[in-house]
Design goal:
Layout (H helix, E strand, L loop, with lengths): L3 H5 L16 H34 L17 H30 L8 E8 L2 E6 L4 E4 L1 E5 L9 E7 L4 E3 L8 E3 L5 E5 L5 E6 L12 E7 L1 H12 L4 H4 L29 H12 L7 H9 L3 H4 L23 E2 L4 E2 L2 H9 L17 H11 L4
Parallel strand pairs: 1-5, 4-10
Antiparallel strand pairs: 1-2, 2-3, 5-8, 6-7, 9-10, 11-12
Helix pairs in contact: 2-3, 7-10, 9-10
The structure holds copper (II) ion.
Copper (II) ion binds next to loops.
Length: 376
């Protein structure tokens, strides 16, 4: 037996998930307030437990001493001090917290800011870059931002189903993703690298495997990444296998529209027959046959591969699947073996995932995997 569990767990390695190792302005503001509150409450704790210890020792019952301790009734001074001092402390904590709250919430958005729309799904993240015509999943790429005014990323968050919560502790506090509502947050990570987090609001069976990866790129890396994500790959279909090249009348840049003219062919036997008849090579494991099989399965009603007949929006966009390090929101590394296992039965990797096992033949699964591996 393979070791599905061991293989499917991504070692987090270096990236920290501590709110104290902040790497972005909103996170450092939150972290500073936490330290401030902890310091004040810590001092109160020390003072109170010190006084308590002193009283316990100083006024402990001594052998043979049966006398009543002095009885004190009312003291305006003491009562005033234990009323006014706590009120002052609370006012200070309140004002400090409110200041941070507003400075993070009302931060002005510079013209240079990058916009990303985040859509929470059970159990994965959709990231859209409206200015770039880029759609990806689970792994957010943003540029490094030397100062908050340099090139921060402003996120608009919403949900396709239930409530989720976006939380990358090193970058910012939590922000919920609510259906029919758009929340906003921003980050300005100062250091390139990988920052991890996860959905912080229980959203169903696979909530625990709804992980988040934020790649902070240098400006050059980011441009390179965007340029690659913007690529559309219609060539495969166009130069494909005769007949079905005509089945892609859609422009190469058209990503977002669900097609209706696509006949979804679900019976493996029939597909195999068709495949056999048209190619005379249905056993062949190649990207070309793989694409043919993929495009004749229900995959295309849930997934988009830009420039092909696959225009589904229910699952992650697969146009540049292989540019991601993980699949299924961090549940498994993105490699041939795991992809094959995933499309054979997603539940092996992520029980309760909303992608159904497609019950294709082993050959078909291998063919589709060969195709997926070309989606760079
Ligand atoms: Cu969630």
């Amino acid at each position: 037996m393979a070791t599905p569990v061991a293989a499917s767990v991504i070692a987090w390695g270096a990236p920290s998930t501590s709110t104290f190792s902040h790497a972005s302005t909103p996170a450092s503001e939150v972290s500073n307030v936490s330290v401030f509150v902890l310091t004040i409450t810590g001092l109160i704790f020390l003072a109170m437990s010190g006084l308590l210890t002193y009283a316990l020792v100083r006024f402990r019952g001594r052998k043979g001493d049966m006398s009543e301790p002095a009885q004190v009734f009312g003291s305006v001074q003491i009562e005033l001090s234990w009323t006014i001092i706590p009120i002052l402390i609370i006012v200070v904590l309140f004002l400090t917290t409110a200041r941070v709250l507003f400075s993070v919430q009302d931060a002005p958005k510079p013209a240079s800011a990058l916009d990303v729309t985040v859509v929470g799904h059970q159990f994965w993240w959709e990231f859209r870059y409206p200015k770039y015509n880029v759609v990806t999943a689970n792994e957010l790429h943003v540029p490094v931002s030397a100062t908050a005014a340099d090139r921060p990323t402003f996120l608009k968050l919403t949900s396709a189903d239930v409530i989720h919560s976006f939380w990358v502790p090193q970058l910012a506090g939590k922000t919920d993703l609510l259906p029919n509502r758009v929340n906003e947050m921003w980050i300005d990570p100062g250091q390139p690298g990988l920052y991890v987090g996860q959905c912080a609001q229980f959203c169903g069976a696979e909530h625990a495997k709804m992980l988040l990866r934020v790649y902070v790129d240098t400006p050059e890396q980011f441009q390179e990444w965007i340029a690659n994500q913007e690529k559309r790959e219609p060539e495969l279909t166009a130069q494909g296998t005769g007949e079905e090249s005509g089945a892609n009348p859609r422009g190469a840049r058209n990503v977002a529209h669900a097609g209706t003219q696509v006949a979804v062919q679900n019976s493996p036997a029939t597909v195999e027959d068709m495949s056999l008849a048209r190619h005379g090579k249905s056993e062949e494991i190649s990207q070309e046959v793989g694409q043919y099989v993929f495009e004749h399965q229900a995959c295309i009603s849930c997934h988009t591969v830009a420039g092909t007949v696959a225009t589904g929006r229910y699952g992650p966009d697969l146009t540049h699947l292989m540019s991601r390090a993980t699949i299924a929101a961090g549940a498994a590394p993105n490699a041939q073996e795991q992809l094959l296992r995933w499309i054979t039965d997603p539940n092996q990797i992520k029980p309760g995932s909303l992608m159904p096992a497609m019950h294709l033949t082993d050959t078909q699964n291998e063919q589709i995997t060969a195709y997926l591996l070309t989606l760079k």
